[in-house]
Write a structure and sequence with these properties.
Protein name: D-isomer specific 2-hydroxyacid dehydrogenase catalytic domain-containing protein
CATH topology of the largest domain: Rossmann fold
Order of helices and strands: HEHEHEHEHEHHHEHE
Pfam family, one: 2-Hacid_dh
Helix content: 40-55%
Keywords: NAD, Oxidoreductase
GO cellular component, one term: cytosol
Number of strands: 7
CATH class of the largest domain: Alpha Beta
InterPro entries: D-isomer_2-hydroxyacid_DH, D-isomer_2_OHA_DH_cat_dom, NAD(P)-bd_dom_sf
Structural class: alpha/beta
CATH superfamily of the largest domain: NAD(P)-binding Rossmann-like Domain
């Protein structure tokens, strides 16, 4: 497919996306922004025959009704890990390809899990509140905390995120127990 043919391919943007994503789609495709339409039903009736792809965010997705309104739809792409807002049954029925971003948040979630473990074990948030409330002046030093290193970390589900957490916990000298 040549560059001009790609540009002519219509992509429906159902709801507002991050501006740089819309800009990128605008450069590469002919975009149809449903979220800007005064009358979505009329908008779809006018443009449906040109729309071959749909782009959505994880919180909005694509419904069966919207898929039914797009007879030429070939692909649905969501910039999310989850697919719970995309009608997968309808996509399967129509042989529509569904694409997501399955690994985009793995590192972020694993990093946050480690931060939260450190916060709980080292009492970081609790001791911060203690100091800010002035309690250390009247009640003395905050209780001692425990270290993360050397602990046994239990992980339920050793998929992408669980594995990423396990690697980080191992770097802290933790042993890993998991159920998957």
């Amino acid at each position: 497919m040549g560059e001009e043919q790609v540009k002519q391919a219509g992509v429906l943007i159902s709801h507002p996306l991050i501006p740089y994503l819309i800009d990128s789609l605008d450069r590469k495709f002919t975009t149809y922004k449903l979220f800007e339409a005064q009358n979505p039903v009329e908008f779809l009736a006018e443009h449906a025959q040109f729309i071959r792809g749909a782009a959505c965010a994880g919180q909005n997705g694509i419904t069966a009704e919207l898929i039914d309104a797009l007879p030429c739809l070939e692909i649905v792409a969501t910039n999310s890990v989850g697919l719970d807002k995309v009608d997968l049954g309808k996509c399967r029925e129509r042989n529509i390809v569904v694409a997501n971003t399955p690994d985009v948040l793995t590192d972020d979630v694993a990093d946050l899990a480690m931060v939260l473990m450190l916060d709980v074990l080292r009492h970081i948030s609790a001791s911060d509140r203690y100091v800010r409330q002035g309690l250390w002046l009247s009640k003395g030093d905050y209780k001692l905390a425990v270290k993360l290193s050397g602990k046994r970390v239990g992980i339920v589900g050793l998929g992408r995120i669980g594995t990423a957490i396990a690697k980080r916990a191992e770097a802290f000298g933790c042993s890993i127990a998991y159920y998957s």
